Amino acid sequence: MDKRPIGVFDSGLGGLSAVKAMLKYLPNEDIIYFGDTGRVPYGTRSEKIIDIYAKEDIAFLENFNCKLIVAACGTVSSVAKNAISQVKEPFVEVVTPASEAAVKATKNNKIGVMGTSATINSNSYLKAIQKINPDIHVSGVSCPMLVSLVENNWIDDDDKIAVEIIKRYIKPLLADDVDTIILGCTHFPHLAPIISRVAGNKINLIDTGYEAVMKAKQILLNYNLANESHHLGNADYYISDKTQNFSQIANTLLGMDISDRAKFVDINKFQLPE
Hints:
Layout: E1 6-10, H1 16-25, E2 31-35, H2 47-62, E3 68-71, H3 74-79, H4 81-85, E4 91-92, H5 95-105, E5 110-115, H6 117-122, H7 124-132, E6 137-142, H8 144-151, H9 160-175, E7 180-183, H10 192-199, E8 204-207, H11 208-222, E9 235-239, H12 243-254, E10 262-264
Parallel strand pairs: 1-2, 1-3, 2-9, 3-4, 5-6, 5-7, 7-8, 9-10
Helix pairs in contact: 1-11, 5-7, 5-11, 9-10
């Protein structure tokens, strides 16, 4: 039994989709979440900057002696290869498990990917999927505005702006006759009800946060790292900008009040030499 916490990080609020799944499927585990709200979004940055940010995020979490670290960020998972390669702890990114789930879900071998500009330009999902099955056709669409919708809590099912933006983004994927769409940024599952309504109920949606948590659960069991005590785990939330806005939106996304557990951290203190 290992009582050390699991570290989770993202550029902002999106990674809370992974935390929500973790609270449900790994209820005994303690969680340290870092949302880099002061530097969101990552998806429009250069690969060099994303890699630097990822290294700093990981350095912060390593202060808590985490037994496993989850990059609940499609952008980091796609392009921060140098940062990922240097992690000492067991590590979970979102691209591989989501790609595996999509390959299992598709019936017509046509998969769509919605992601940030950095994720789509990296072709990370295309490479991961075709490594599993080279016969699958993969269509990608960059959806930079969806991150802002979530960060500003514009996620209501009837939000006309969100609906119209998603219609525009999803149109080319439907034109390619995909039957499965990977929500390739952990912000996007928070918009899943709208995306599902726009795409139609015959389209499979792959939640990257959920799939990453299932992968984390497998690792914990395989390496005897699970916390097998019967107490409910605790979750602490750290962000690099004002806590009030984060807490208000996080309450909606998680369905619980976390205002007393949200703390500011100066991520600049964890800057590493280049």
